[in-house]
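Slide 14.
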Amino acid sequence: MPNQPSTAYWYAATSWDGVYRSTDDGLTWFLINTGLTDLSMSSIGLDETGNGVLAGTGYGGVYRSSAVSNQSTKNVGGLI
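Slide 15: predicted structure.
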């Protein structure tokens, strides 16, 4: 039996509802907004390690979360 691939995480940012994550190739999506004080997302991406998610908000905040966590923390010390 071939090795099972690791879980692929998919992310989507919305301008009204925050950040969603899927672990089943987009069949189902779950909100991962814990810690977000601004749900108006303008951008999303992975950090340089590929283990963290960065979300930029419509009001200038940048949040970081681990790729598998539902908890985000706001970056307040300048650019990441």
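Speaker note: Residues 42 and 65 are 16 Å apart (CA to CA).
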